[in-house]
């Protein structure tokens, strides 16, 4: 653990303030029954936002508009305690292809936005974040975010969002399922291990999601034939084992099928096909396993229809009183969200999740903080109406909606 590995530094009389197990984040975090807990045995409920870094530039969004420290303090001001920081496997593939060297920001922006715009955005990033230079690498930006997260005591949850760095997610984007056009399984496992290992230098990093929103690769018949729970198990289990081997401190998040809207057979250890059943006690790192679910039933008119679907789709894992539940585990809603420009923050969907998750004291991460994207689906400086931030990341898009998130955070933790 960190304390032990840092002892030699202390004996050498270093004045460097080294992270120790008795300081925040009091890690490593563990899964104990339905709770995530810190090393002091206290329950930790994640409440946070997505912050993507898996787009074409493979650089966390918004840095041309705002400094990392201000973004973090704005997140903190809402009472949020975690960022879901997304990355693309392509970034790690490129690092391997260059013998371990990552690409500098100048190249990354030019490749993603073209020479003129890439250079312009780079200069804006350097103006807002003067700790960087044109030769700072993408991974060094992730490092800087993780360092700021430590400073402001915000947990970092890394998420492998996609393989090829593009807007996610669709059934025909080539990233849908294990073995799909861009979803090379060996590269994926390698990339996860790389980030888990690299993240050992980020004390704020407490967990990692193996893969965002597995889904039916509907334009790829050969791969679509393997779209089932058996294949899910045969891929997710080795990937999680690899992460645990690379960095035993991390919680490992398992997302389900149909865009991670269902993990139905997992809590009850139902037959997955091929004689397989998910039993957490089969794994020596069972105390690192967490389930993650997404929900976007934004037009629901009844709260019951949302909560019964959530319960049967995986939230029953929280329910130790349910005799059918074999795997009692933490469940985190790592994505949900809605338009931030209208009154949806007062609607059925939002208020339902607020009361359900608040009642369960179960964690969540809102999609999304990003007021705009460097580029999304071919449009540069794309405006994100679902974002907490306004377009230029200078303030909340709608004050009342942001305050609804703040009160939801307060009522969940
Ligand atoms: C940022 O956006 C806000 C809200 O739309 C606007 O009032 C402000 O002038 C913008 N700031 C800059 C520097 O463009
Ligand atoms: C910051 C951000 O946009 N994060 C991701 C949150 O989830 C959605 C849906 O998968 C992604 O598209 C976003 O990129």
Please give a handful of descriptors for the protein shown.
single chain; 413 residues; alpha/beta; TIM Barrel; two-stranded antiparallel sheet; 13 helices; globular; binds 2-acetamido-2-deoxy-beta-D-glucopyranose
Could you give the order of strands across the largest sheet?
3-4-5-6-7-8-9-10
Q: Would you identify the CATH H-level superfamily?
A: Glycosidases
Order of helices and strands: HEEEHEHHHHEHEHHEHEHEHEEEH
The fold-level CATH name is: TIM Barrel
Helix content: 25-40%
Q: Give the low-confidence spans.
A: 1-20
Tally of helical runs: 13
Q: For the terminal residues, how far apart are their CA atoms?
A: 27 Å
**For the record, what CATH class applies?**
Alpha Beta
Principal-axis shape: globular
Query: How is the main sheet built?
Result: 8 strands, parallel, barrel
Bound molecules: 2-acetamido-2-deoxy-beta-D-glucopyranose
Description:
InterPro entries: GH (IPR017853), Glyco_hydro_5 (IPR001547). Belongs to the glycosyl hydrolase 5 (cellulase A) family. GO terms for molecular function: hydrolase activity, hydrolyzing O-glycosyl compounds. Keywords: Glycosidase, Hydrolase, Signal. Residues 1-17 form the signal peptide. This protein is an alpha/beta fold and 413 residues long. The chain has one domain (3-412): Glycosidases (TIM Barrel, Alpha-Beta Barrel), CATH 3.20.20. 35% of the residues lie in helices and 15% in strands. An 8-stranded parallel barrel has the order 3-4-5-6-7-8-9-10, surrounded by 4 helices. Strand 3, helix 2 and strand 4 (82-88) form a beta-alpha-beta unit. Helix 4 crosses helix 5 (115-128), helix 7 (185-198) runs parallel beside helix 9 and helix 11 packs across helix 12. The radius of gyration is 20 Å and the shape is globular. The chain binds 2-acetamido-2-deoxy-beta-D-glucopyranose (2 copies). One 2-acetamido-2-deoxy-beta-D-glucopyranose binds at residues 50-52, 86, 168-169, 212-213, 335, 367-368, 370.
